UniProtKB/TrEMBL annotation:
Entry function: Hydrolyzes deoxynucleoside triphosphates (dNTPs) to the corresponding nucleoside monophosphates. Has a strong preference for dCTP and its analogs including 5-iodo-dCTP and 5-methyl-dCTP for which it may even have a higher efficiency. May protect DNA or RNA against the incorporation of these genotoxic nucleotide analogs through their catabolism.
Subcellular location: Cytoplasm, Cytosol
Pfam families: MazG-like
Annotated protein name in UniProt: dCTP pyrophosphatase 1
GO molecular function: dCTP diphosphatase activity; identical protein binding; metal ion binding
Organism, as annotated: Dissostichus eleginoides (Patagonian toothfish)
Keywords: Cytoplasm, Hydrolase, Magnesium, Metal-binding, Phosphoprotein
Region Disordered, residue ranges: 1-30
Reactions catalysed: dCTP + H2O = dCMP + diphosphate + H(+)
Domain of life: Eukaryota
E.C. no: 3.6.1.12
Cross-referenced SUPFAM superfamilies: all-alpha NTP pyrophosphatases (SSF101386)
Co-factor(s): Mg(2+)
Claim: Phosphoprotein is one of the keywords in the record: yes
Length: 177
């Protein structure tokens, strides 16, 4: 489990969240998320019909997450412990916790139709821990993740042209020109 509790990170210990998660002041906050986002939670945590393509909510952004975690860390004077190596090892530990949720289940269908809501929420929490550590690691290493993703996707398009690799799981080094 990550040291940052969802209650503290979202300002739910009787205080208002310090980072605005919405650009529309008409939306109310419930447990640190907009009611709109809360309504989508079940569908986005695997409770949807499966016929529609999954989509993340637009907020919070990666930058919002970075700011929330930076504030959380600063308030606790934990930057002294949050060096890149430590963050990486903590993130790997959290990935291990995600792995445990899938261990011994065999193949798991997209959307997790056989999982309970409690199991889905546990997965959501562990994946959140991984994301929070990833974002903080990127911050400490000065990697602008959204821009890095754009560059990496462009590189992947070159390495894996759709007309050449469609339907194949081979590594790019296995394709012949």
């Amino acid at each position: 489990m990550m040291a940052t509790s969802g209650k503290d990170a979202c300002g739910l210990n009787g205080e208002e969240p310090s980072v605005s998660l919405t650009s529309n002041n008409d939306k109310s906050l419930v447990n640190g998320a907009t009611t709109e986002a809360s309504a989508l939670s079940k569908r986005q945590n695997g409770g949807g019909t499966g016929a529609e393509r999954f989509a993340f909510s637009p907020e919070p952004t990666i930058e919002d997450i970075r700011r929330m975690q930076a504030q959380f860390t600063d308030e606790r004077d934990w930057n002294q412990f949050h060096q890149p190596r430590n963050l990486l090892l903590a993130m790997v530990g959290e990935v291990g916790e995600v792995s445990e949720l899938f261990q011994w289940r065999g193949e798991v269908a997209e959307g997790l139709p056989d999982w309970t809501e409690a199991e889905r929420e546990h997965l959501a929490q562990e994946l959140s821990d991984v994301l929070i550590y990833l974002v903080e690691l990127a911050e400490k290493c000065r990697v602008d993740l959204p821009q890095a993703v754009l560059r990496k996707m462009a590189l992947n398009r070159l390495k894996y042209p759709a007309n050449k690799v469609h339907g194949s799981a081979k590594k790019y080094t296995e394709y012949k020109d």
